[in-house]
């Protein structure tokens, strides 16, 4: 499957991505999302044990240890149980369409710490390997806290999303100088409405009771130096920047999809 040195430790916690659809001739289910997590447990061994415990009913496709070792727990064609109750761009059955990667880190409960270089290199290589097999758009590479902001904080503000983006994995618009000048500036009602529209357009679930956690999740990822959940001028500006990049990526993906369809039609005809 891959030239990476991947160890196997099969987990029993998985099921079909869409057996009914396949049986009706719809073809294999789509896999177009990559979700990154941290394990949030005191050791890699404890995390692996839990992800392979049938009573826990949780799993992921891959686990990446701090020394860079990679474990395959669930085959990619099967649905792992990693996303839980979650939502992105209005879609809720995210386990069905995603690959889940657990990155070993104690997390905020057990002593959150920076991710080691060997681990980041392995995560980068694994993500490239996954993307070589699945057509996953950059705007659908997310963290667990992005899709479940009221429940999750992983992979957290110390995870290097900009590094992955430089490697062609996910999105990271470079912040404009104007954002630094806007730090702490208030946001009016009209601007607040536009900023929350940007937040929803990027993919976050925005509804009563969910706005502040969604803003924290956005800040952890795209403005990790301060994640207080306040919709200040800097956050609003960053939201606008990210929305523009997301929309450009979505437009490019739609163009590519249409080109693929036209190519298929020409082959058929």
Helical residue percent band: 40-55%
Give the strand line-up of the largest sheet.
1-5-4-7-3-8
DSSP, total strands: 8
- Distance from N terminus to C terminus (CA atoms, Å) equals 33 Å
Total count of domains: 2
Radius of gyration, whole Å: 19 Å
The major pleated sheet works out as: 6 strands, mixed
Q: What is the CATH C level class of the largest domain, in words?
A: Alpha Beta
Can you tell me the residue ranges where pLDDT is under 50 for at least 5 consecutive residues? none
What general outline do the C-alpha atoms trace? globular
Query: Helical element count?
Result: 11
CATH topology of the largest domain: Lysozyme-like
Q: Average pLDDT, to the nearest integer?
A: 90
Look at the helices and sheets and give the structural class.
Answer: alpha/beta
Instruction: Encode the helix/strand succession as letters.
Output: EEHEHEEEHEHHEHHHHHH
CATH superfamily of the largest domain: Peptidoglycan recognition protein-like
Structure report:
The chain has 269 residues and is an alpha/beta fold. It has two domains: 1-172, Peptidoglycan recognition protein-like (Lysozyme-like, 3-Layer(aba) Sandwich), CATH 3.40.80.10; 173-269, PGBD-like superfamily/PGBD (Muramoyl-pentapeptide Carboxypeptidase, domain 1). 43% of the residues lie in helices and 11% in strands. It is built from eleven helices and eight strands. The protein has helices spanning 19-23, 44-51, 94-97, 107-110, 117-133, 144-147, 161-166, 177-181, 189-202, 211-222, 233-268, and strands spanning 6-8, 14-16, 33-38, 62-64, 70-72, 78-80, 98-103, 141-143. The chain has a six-stranded mixed β-sheet with strand order 1-5-4-7-3-8. Strands 2-6 form a two-stranded antiparallel sheet. Helix 9 runs parallel beside helix 11. It is globular and about 50 Å long. The relative contact order is 0.12.
